[in-house]
Write a structure and sequence with these properties.
Elements (H helix, E strand, L loop, with lengths): L5 H10 L13 H8 L7 H15 L8 E5 L7 E2 L5 E2 L1 H13 L3 E5 L2 H10 L4 E6 L8 E3 L4 E3 L1 E5 L17 E4 L3 H8 L6 E4 L2 H9 L5 E5 H11 L5 E2 L9 E8 L3 H17 L1 H9 L10 H24 L1 H27 L3 E6 L4 E4 L1 H6 L5 H4 L15 H9 L1 E10 L5 E12 L5 E10 L1 H45 L6 H27 L8 E3 L1 H7 L1 H8 L3 E6 L7 E3 L1 H17 L5 E12 L1 H4 L8 E10 L6 H5 L18 H11 L3 E6 L5 E8 L23 E5 L3 H13 L3 E5 L2 H10 L6 E5 L7 H8 L7 E6 L4 H9 L5 E3 L4 H13 L3
Helix pairs in contact: 1-3, 1-9, 4-9, 4-10, 16-17, 16-24, 17-23, 20-23, 25-26
C-alpha cells in the first residue's frame, strides 16, 4: 500500500494528523523536524524518493522482527482489555499502519516511567502516545500529531468554587511522574506540593481519597476512569489551564529516520482512505464529537457566504460600539479586582451584612479577629451573636436610627465566647422609603491595647500606693526609732520597779511589731534596703523545707521539684525567703481541710510574644519559682486586687493584707515578674520570675557571722534632722564610750567638722535630710579627708540617693528603726573596716 511518487509523499506530510478539536492551533511538529534536519530530511520530495526505493527493494520480502511499542495505561488511547490484551486507539492505529507499511508491532503496557526506561535502554522502539517537548528532542524524533485532546482540571468537592487557574496556586496537585503535566508544573515553578504518581489513575485516586487537591489531565481519559472506577469525589473545574495543550505523537529513537517516515506515511494513507476516521470514531468520538474539517463544509460554503457578508456588514457597523463595550467591561473588571484586593488585604475586619445583621461577606481580618477558621464559616453568622447580649445590640439600633455609627468602642465576643474589644465604624444602606436594607462596616481589634492600658493603670495605682506607703513608713520609722531606742535605754535603769519595767518592755515589743509592719510596707513600695548576692533558688527552697513543714501543718503535703540545672540570680536571700514563706502561708489558708503544696524551680526563656503583653517585662532568660496548691482558688474579682496592700479575704483579725503585697514589692524590686492562674475550686498557681545570670556565675556565698556589739572610744559626728532620733542615738553611743558631736543638718555638720582640730573617726548620718542629704554631706567632708569613714541611717531606700551613696565606694546602711545592738554593731563594723 506504500505509495512512492512525489505527490503522494507530500500528501503524507500534509495530512498525516487529524484536525485538532475546536480552538486548538494545529502544529505539525513531525514535519517541522524533518524540514530542520539535514541529509535525508532536507526535502519532502527526497522522502518520497526514499520511500519509493525502499518500497521496491522490500517488495515481496517478509516482515522484519516485531518492533516493541511502549504503552502506558491511558484509556481510551491504550489499556489492557478484559482478557489482558493491549487495546485502544493507539493500538488499532499502529496495527493499521503496520499493515500498510509492512511492519509488525509488539505491545507492552507499563507505567510511564517504566516505558521511558525501556525506551532509553533500547528495549522499546516506539512510544505510542508522547507529547512534544523541546527538552525531549535530543533523544526522541516525533511524528506528526496523531490526535489532540482537551485538558481538564478535576478537584476535590471542597474546592469546587474555584473560578480561575490562579486560585489553584499553592494547592496539592497529583501528576504522573516525569510525564507532560509533571514537567510542565515544575517549569511553572509551582507554589504548592506536587504528588508524583505512577499512572493517571493513581493521580485521580489520590484526589478522590483526599491525598491531593487537584489533578490536571486529559478530559477524555479522566471521564472514562471516573465512570469505570466509580471515583465519586472528583468534580470538573470551571476553568481551563492556560498554556497547556495535549497533542500526541508517535516517538522513535533520535536518528531512526526510516521508521519515522513509515509512521508518518502510514498516518497519511489512513487519512486518505478513511480508515483513520473509522478508528477515531470507534474510540474517541463517543467521548467527544469529532472535530469537523474544512473540506466537509465546502458544499455549504457558497450559500453561507451571502449570509456571512450580510452579517459582517451589520457587525462592521457595531464595531465601535462593541469596542467601547469591551473597554468598559475591562475597566469594570479592573475596578472590581482593585476593590477585592483592598477588601481582602485590609488589616481591619471588613464585612457586609443584610438588614437583619446576617453577614453576607467578610475579609480574612474579620475571620481572624473573631476566631473563625475560614471566610465561608463566618458568612451567614448573625452579627448579634458576636455581642455579649444578642437581644440588646444597641449599635444596630443606633444604625437604624442615625444611618451610621462612627468610632464606637464596643465589647464583642469571638466565636469561642472570649471578649474582643473593638473600635467600630458602621454605615447603613436604606431604600427610598428610609428602611434599612443592608449595612457594612469595619472593626479594628483593640483587645491588646486595652489589655496593656489596664496593666498600665494597675501599675500606676500600685506605684501611687507604694509612694504613699513609703512616705508613711519613712516618718513612722523615725518615730519607732525613738520609741525603741528610749525603751531600751529605760530598761538599762536598774531602779525601775517590776510593773514599770513590764510596761516599758511591752512598749518596746509593740515598737518591734510596728517595725515589722513598716518593713512590709517598704518592701511593697520597693523602698526596702536590699543586700543582693548571687543566689541559688534551689538552696533557698531546700533550706526552708523544714520551716515550711511547720508553717503548713501535718494535713498539707509539701513537695519540692527542683531543677538540678537551675541557673543563678542576684537577690537578697532574706527577701526571697520572705516571698516563699508568704506564698506558702497564702496557700495554707486556701486549704483549710488540707491538700498539697508543690514548690518547683525551672529555667525559663521568655520571648517577645509573651513579654509584650506585660508592661515593664523584658524578653530574656529567667529562673522561675512556682508555688501551686489545690485549694479553693480565686475568682476574677479577687485576682484583680490580689496584690493591693491591706486587701484580704480573711476574717477580721486573721490577716493584715500585706503578705502578697510584700511578695509583689520584692519581686518588682528585683526586676522580676509574678503572675497568677486560679479559678474557683481549681487551686492557684503563682509563678515568680527572676532574671537569670549568665552561665558561669559564682554560687551564692554564705553570710559572714555578725560580730557582737562592742564598746568604743572613737569620735563620731552624728547628723540627723529628727530631734527624737538624734537624741536617742547620741545617748546610745555615749553610753557605750563613744565621743559624740550631734548636728541637726548638713551645714551645721560642716561647721562642727571644721571646728574640731583632731577630726572625727566616723560620720553617722541620715540619708534623707531637707537642706543637704547624707551622701552630699559625706562627699563634701571627703574633699578634706578622703579616707573618712561613713555610716548611713535610712528609713527607706530611695534609689536615687543610694546611687549617690554608691558613688564613693563601699558603704554601710543601718535601717531604721534599729535596736541599740544593731546600731553599735554597724558602728563597730564600719570603724574596724580597713580604709
Amino acid at each position: 500500500m506504500t505509495r512512492t511518487h512525489g505527490f503522494t509523499c507530500r500528501a503524507i506530510l500534509r495530512e498525516a494528523a487529524p484536525a485538532p478539536p475546536p480552538g486548538d492551533q494545529w502544529i505539525d511538529l513531525g514535519a517541522e523536524r524533518h524540514r530542520r534536519r539535514g541529509g535525508l530530511a532536507s526535502s519532502v520530495w527526497w522522502h518520497g524518493l526514499v520511500a519509493a526505493v525502499a518500497g521496491v527493494s522490500l517488495l515481496g520480502v517478509a516482515r522484519a522482527a516485531p518492533i516493541r511499542v511502549g504503552l502506558e495505561p491511558y484509556p481510551p488511547y491504550s489499556f489492557a482489555d478484559a482478557a489482558g490484551k493491549p487495546a485502544g486507539f493507539c493500538v488499532d492505529l499502529l496495527d493499521a499502519i503496520g499493515r500498510r507499511e509492512n511492519l509488525e508491532f509488539d505491545y507492552e503496557i507499563k507505567p510511564w516511567e517504566e516505558v521511558m526506561d525501556d525506551f532509553n535502554s533500547g528495549r522499546v522502539g516506539v512510544l505510542a502516545n508522547v507529547i512534544y517537548l523541546k527538552s525531549r528532542t535530543a533523544d526522541i524524533d516525533f511524528s506528526v500529531a496523531h490526535s489532540a485532546l482537551p485538558v481538564g482540571v478535576y478537584l476535590r468537592p471542597e474546592l469546587a468554587d474555584l473560578s480561575s487557574f490562579e486560585q489553584l496556586q499553592g494547592k496539592r496537585v497529583a501528576a504522573t511522574r516525569n510525564a507532560m503535566t509533571h514537567i510542565w508544573l515544575l517549569a511553572q515553578h509551582w507554589q504548592g506540593p506536587i504528588l508524583a504518581t505512577e499512572t493517571v489513575l493513581d493521580s485521580l485516586r489520590a484526589v478522590d481519597a483526599g491525598q491531593a487537591d487537584a489533578v490536571i489531565t486529559s478530559r477524555y481519559v479522566a471521564e472514562r476512569y471516573i465512570r469505570e472506577e466509580h471515583l465519586n469525589r472528583l468534580v470538573p473545574a470551571r476553568f481551563d489551564v492556560p498554556g497547556l495543550k495535549y497533542r500526541f505523537h508517535f516517538g522513535v529513537h533520535h536518528g531512526d529516520t526510516e521508521l519515522l517516515f513509515k509512521l508518518n506515511n502510514g498516518l497519511a494513507e489512513l487519512r486518505e482512505d478513511g480508515e483513520y476516521e473509522r478508528i477515531y470514531g470507534l474510540w474517541l468520538t463517543p467521548l467527544a464529537p469529532r472535530p469537523v474539517r474544512l473540506r466537509d463544509l465546502l458544499p455549504y460554503l457558497g450559500p453561507a457566504a451571502i449570509v456571512l457578508l450580510l452579517v459582517l456588514g451589520a457587525l462592521w457597523r457595531q464595531r465601535r460600539l462593541l469596542g467601547q463595550l469591551a473597554r468598559q467591561t475591562e475597566a469594570l473588571r479592573e475596578s472590581e479586582d482593585r476593590y477585592r484586593s483592598f477588601f481582602d488585604d485590609d488589616l481591619a475586619g471588613a464585612f457586609i451584612a443584610d438588614e437583619g445583621g446576617r453577614i453576607l461577606a467578610c475579609n480574612p481580618a474579620f475571620v481572624r479577629i473573631f476566631g473563625f477558621d475560614t471566610v465561608p464559616q463566618a458568612v451567614g453568622t448573625e452579627l448579634a451573636r458576636l455581642f455579649p447580649r444578642p437581644a440588646e445590640v444597641s449599635p444596630l439600633d443606633d444604625l437604624r436610627a442615625g444611618g451610621k455609627v462612627q468610632t464606637r468602642e464596643l465589647e464583642m465576643r469571638g466565636r469561642d465566647g472570649q471578649p474582643v474589644q473593638v473600635v467600630a465604624n458602621l454605615v447603613g444602606t436604606f431604600n427610598p422609603a428610609g428602611k434599612l436594607v443592608g449595612l457594612k462596616g469595619y472593626v479594628i481589634d483593640t483587645s491588646e491595647s486595652k489589655r496593656l492600658e489596664s496593666q498600665l493603670r494597675q501599675a500606676q495605682k500600685m506605684e501611687a500606693i507604694g509612694r504613699l506607703a513609703g512616705g508613711v513608713a519613712h516618718d513612722f520609722n523615725n518615730i519607732l526609732t525613738a520609741i525603741i531606742g528610749n525603751t531600751e535605754l529605760a530598761l538599762l535603769n536598774e531602779g525601775l520597779d517590776a510593773d514599770t519595767r513590764s510596761a516599758v518592755a511591752e512598749i518596746k515589743s509593740a515598737g518591734h511589731r510596728a517595725a515589722g509592719l513598716t518593713r512590709q510596707l517598704l518592701t511593697f513600695s520597693r523602698q526596702q534596703v536590699v543586700q543582693p548576692v548571687v543566689l541559688d533558688l534551689n538552696a533557698v527552697a531546700a533550706d526552708m523545707e523544714k520551716m515550711l513543714h511547720r508553717v503548713l501543718g501535718e494535713d498539707i503535703e509539701l513537695q519540692l521539684k527542683l531543677d538540678p540545672a537551675l541557673g543563678r540570680t542576684t537577690a537578697d536571700q532574706s527577701q526571697i525567703e520572705q516571698v516563699l514563706l508568704n506564698l506558702a502561708v497564702n496557700a495554707r489558708d486556701a486549704m483549710p481541710e488540707g491538700g498539697r503544696l508543690l514548690v518547683e524551680t525551672r529555667n525559663v526563656d521568655l520571648d517577645e510574644t509573651y513579654t509584650r503583653m506585660i508592661a515593664g517585662l523584658r524578653a530574656g532568660s529567667y529562673v522561675s519559682l512556682v508555688v501551686s496548691d489545690d485549694g479553693c482558688g480565686m475568682d476574677a474579682a479577687t485576682k484583680a486586687r490580689l496584690f493591693e496592700p491591706f486587701f484580704t479575704t480573711k476574717g477580721d483579725g486573721k490577716g493584715t493584707g500585706l503578705g502578697l503585697a510584700t511578695v509583689y514589692g520584692i519581686v518588682k524590686q528585683h526586676q522580676g515578674h509574678i503572675d497568677v492562674y486560679s479559678e474557683p475550686g481549681s487551686g492557684s498557681v503563682f509563678r515568680v520570675y527572676f532574671p537569670r545570670l549568665a552561665a558561669g556565675a559564682e554560687a551564692a556565698g554564705t553570710r559572714a557571722p555578725m560580730p557582737l556589739a562592742q564598746r568604743g572610744t572613737e569620735s563620731i559626728l552624728l547628723v540627723e534632722d529628727n530631734d527624737s532620733v538624734r537624741t536617742v542615738t547620741a545617748k546610745i553611743l555615749a553610753s557605750h564610750g563613744y565621743q559624740v558631736a550631734a548636728a541637726e543638718n548638713g551645714p551645721v555638720a560642716l561647721r562642727l567638722f571644721k571646728e574640731r582640730a583632731d577630726g572625727f573617726d566616723l560620720v553617722l548620718t541620715d540619708v534623707v535630710m531637707k537642706e543637704m542629704n547624707g551622701p552630699d554631706l559625706v562627699e563634701r567632708l571627703r574633699e578634706d579627708v578622703p579616707d573618712l569613714k561613713a555610716l548611713f541611717m535610712s528609713g527607706f531606700a530611695d534609689s536615687r540617693v543610694l546611687g549617690q551613696v554608691g558613688r564613693n565606694g563601699t558603704f554601710t546602711i543601718v535601717e531604721k528603726p534599729f535596736t541599740q545592738q544593731t546600731l553599735l554593731r554597724k558602728v563597730r563594723e564600719t570603724l574596724d573596716r580597713a580604709a
